[in-house]
Amino acid sequence: MGKFTIGCFSSLVGSMSLDFAVKLSAAAIEKGHKVDFWVSGNATMLSIKGQRAFKDYSALMKPVQELMGKGLTITACEACAEARGYHKDNTLEGFKRHSMDWYLASAFDADRVLHIGGE
Amino acid sequence: MKLAVFVSDYRLNVDTLNRLNPAKLGIILVQNGVYHATLKENGALSSLMGKNADFYVLMDDLETRGLAGKDIGSNVKIISYGDIVDLIFNDYEKTVWL
Known about the structure:
The complex is a heterodimer. Chain A is an alpha/beta fold. Chain A has a single domain, classed as DsrEFH-like (Hypothetical Protein Ychn, Chain: A). Chain A contains four helices and five strands; from the N terminus they run E-H-E-H-E-H-E-H-E. In chain A, strands 4-3-2-1-5 form a five-stranded parallel β-sheet, with helices on both faces. The radius of gyration of chain A is 13 Å and the shape is globular. In chain A, 40% of the residues are buried. By secondary structure, chain B is α/β, with parallel strands linked by helices. In chain B, the strands form two sheets. A five-stranded parallel β-sheet of chain B has the order 6-5-2-1-7. A two-stranded antiparallel sheet of chain B has the order 3-4. In chain B, helix 2 links the parallel strand 5 and strand 6 (76-79). Chain B starts with a strand and ends with a strand. In chain B, 33% of the residues are buried. Chain A binds chain B through residues 2, 4, 16-17, 20, 23-24, 26-28, 30-31, 33, 111-117, and chain B through 6, 8, 30-32, 60, 80-82, 84-86, 88-89, 95, 97.
């Protein structure tokens, strides 16, 4: 089993990429891999508490919390979050916040990396 | 190098792909990229499908768009998220997202 680092820079609502990245993380964890998941830019919305699930939108908070319970390490870009007004006291429990060097370090020692850019 | 390229949009990415010269190229069609394998303009498939590559398409993204295996050519393998994980770890060394 290997370490898989995924970086996602897309938005939470109205983007297909973050949904894809979460489902891919789930599949990798299911196969026994370790997954580090970095969210940056508008994807930091995924770290906020109190997300409401509407039936016509992809709702990722619950799946991400379940994946964290299975060992997913997920980290938000702290600067991106702060720039958007998402502060530490409003961050989901277990969701880490670090500077970009966390992502670089994770990617450096990962067996595989998938970097999904923003739009 | 064995390179897996994720194509997530229907915009043509052939120019970008032509700049890449891996020993082995896999093209994984996801999101709106699945239309490369299904749409025909003036009777012709997307020029992306003319690349010398192994082609894959994500079943979930086909079904989300009301498409199915019968809508794609025999040279495209239909895969799951789990299959993508296996491709990334077992068949390719690097990944690119377009």
